[in-house]
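Lab notes, practical 5.
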Amino acid sequence: MRFKLRVWLPVVQLAIAIVLITGNRLRDRIEDPSWIKPDRQICDGLNAPASLVRFCLLRVADRELQSVAWIDFTLETIVYFALVWLLWYFVSIEVSGRNGKRPNALTRTTTMRAAIDVPLIVFGAALAVYGQLVRHQFGGRPDVYANLVSVPYFIWAIVLVTFYAYDLWAYSQSRRQAKT
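Output from the prediction step:
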């Protein structure tokens, strides 16, 4: 079961992302930007952490390289698809390797759990801020569509912050008990 989940969840999510982004690219028009189309919004919301990393990479590339077309395309597709696969691979490890008594499956064997959990909590908070930016990306006051589009970002933020804050708390409690 664990092996199947670790293989199939990232593959299925990657296939969904490829279909949604490819459909978006095929209908891309200059007068109608691709980032406001529903298929792109669904893909970005479903893969919100990967979308945030892609957004940051695009901003850095835009600032440093003044929008070189092939770099933007590479970040929008190849790098994004790699990030989606990696995101869902880590999710599959967490889901298949965690039960009520065991700590975080990704960091349970490392001595740097706090150094990993804290940045992930901060990343979750950054997703909440990014979700707020998504709400306002359509210009003006957010409407129903903008609110719906931003929901997955807030869900990812809540899950990441709660999950890793609890893991950090449990780790600190076990360290205190070990010292006494």
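Observations recorded by the TA: Residues 100-180 form one domain. The chain is about 75% helix and 0% strand.
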